[in-house]
Amino acid sequence: xxxxxxxxxxxxxxxxxxxxxxxxxxxxxxxxxxxxxxxxxxxxxxxxxxxxxxxxxxxxxxxxxxxxxxxxxxxxxxxxxxxxxxxxxxxxxxxxxxxxxxxxxxxxxxxxxxxxxxxxxxxxxxxxxxxxxxxxxxxxxxxxxxxxxxxxxxxxxxxxxxxxxxxxxxxxxxxxxxxxxxxxxxxxxxxxxxxxxxxxxxxxxxxxxxxxxxxxxxxxxxxxxxxxxxxxxxxxxxxxxxxxxxxxxxxxxxxxxxxxxxxxxxxxxxxxxxxxxxxxxxxxxxxxxxxxxxxxxxxxxxxxxxxxxxxxxxxxxxxxxxxxxxxxxxxxxxxxxxxxxxxxxxxxxxxxxxxxxxxxxxxxxxxxxxxxxxxxxxxxxxxxxxxxxxxxxxxxxxxxxxxxxxxxxxxxxxxxxxxxxxxxxxxxxxxxxxxxxxxxxxxxxxxxxxxxxxxxxxxxxxxx
Length: 464
What we know:
about 475 residues; FN3_dom; signal; 2 helices; 5-stranded mixed sheet; 6-blade_b-propeller_TolB-like; repeat; Neuraminidase; Immunoglobulin-like; 2 domains; 5-stranded antiparallel sheet; FN3_sf
C-alpha cells in the first residue's frame, strides 16, 4: 500500500512541477510601444510646421493611437496637450504630422507619441520657433553653365560642356571649381561665367606634373580651395588626395595609391579607399570622407594622416570617440564633409541617409535623417555651410535641402525620386543626381547636376 501511495505522491509532484514550468514560460508581453521623434522640424512658417516620428515596436498590443503632441508652455508635452492623430499601420513605420493654427513668433515643444493597451510612450522632445510673418521658403533654379551634352568644351556659361561633374567648391572671389569626373579634369567657372580647364589632360590615369595640363586624374570627386588659391581634390579612382597650386602645379598631397586603410605619413605611407569629400579647417588641416573605408580622416598641415571617426565595417553608431579603447562610432559610405567656425564636422553619411555631426570633443550624433528616417535626407551626396551655420545638402535622389542652424528642414528645390531637367521654382525644378554643392556670401547655391552635365544655381526665395 505504501508503494502505490508513494508513486501517486511523486506523480502529483511531477505534474505540478511541469505545470509550474509551463506557466513560467508562458509570459505575456505587456510593453508599451517604442518610438523616436523626428529629429528635425520641416517647413516652419508663422502658423504651421511639420513633425513626425518613427515607431520601432508597437509593444505588446495593437496600437490605438499615434501622432505628435505639442505645447508652447509645457516643455514635456503629453497627450493631454494639443495632439495630432495619424493613421494606424499596426507595425513598425514612420509617420508625418502637420501642426497648424500655431502662433507667430512662438517657441513650441513637440514629441511623438504612440498608445497601446498597456500605455502611452513618447519620443524625445524637439523644440522650434515659428516665424514672425507668414512665409514660405523655396528655391528658384536656373542653369549657370553647361549645355547638357556629356562632352568637353571650354566656353562661356551654357556654351561649355561637362561630363558627369561631381565636386564643386567656391573661393572668396566667387570663382567656382568643378571636378569634371568623366573628363578627368578640374574646371573653373569665373564669376562672369567663363569656363576654363585648370588641370588634367582628360586621360584617366595618375600623373603629377608641374604643368597642370599634363597631369592625370581618375574620376575626381569632392574638392575644396584654401585662402591662397590651392585646390585639394579627392581623386577617387586613384585613392589619393591631390593638390593643385595657384600656378597650376599638381602633386600628391596624401595617399600611396593603394585602396586600403593605413594611417601615418601622408606621402607614401597613408592609404585611402575611395576618398569622396574634403574640407579644410582654420588651421590648415584637411578632413576626408573616406567612403569605402567608412571613415572620416584628418591630414594635418604637417602631413600626418589619422582617423577621426568610423571603422572599416559599415554601420550606424553614435557615440563619443575614445581612442584608447578603440571606440570610433560607425558610418556607412560617407561622401561629404564640411566644418563650421567652431570646429564641428558635418558628414553626409550617404549609406545611412543621414547628416552626422562630430564635435571637437569627438561626440558623434545624428542631426537629421538616419536609417529610420531615410526619407528626410534621402541619398545625401554632399553638403556645404554658410556663415550663419545653415547647412545645404544635395540629395542625389533629386532634391536640394536646407537644414538651418535652428534644425529646421526646408526642401528648396526638386522632388525625391523625380529625375529630369527643368529650371523653375520648388518642385517644378528637376535635377538628375545632384552632387557637389557650395554657397556664396549672398546665399546663392551652386550645384553640380551630375547626370544633366550642368551646373545649376539656386536662389532662396522667402514668399508671403
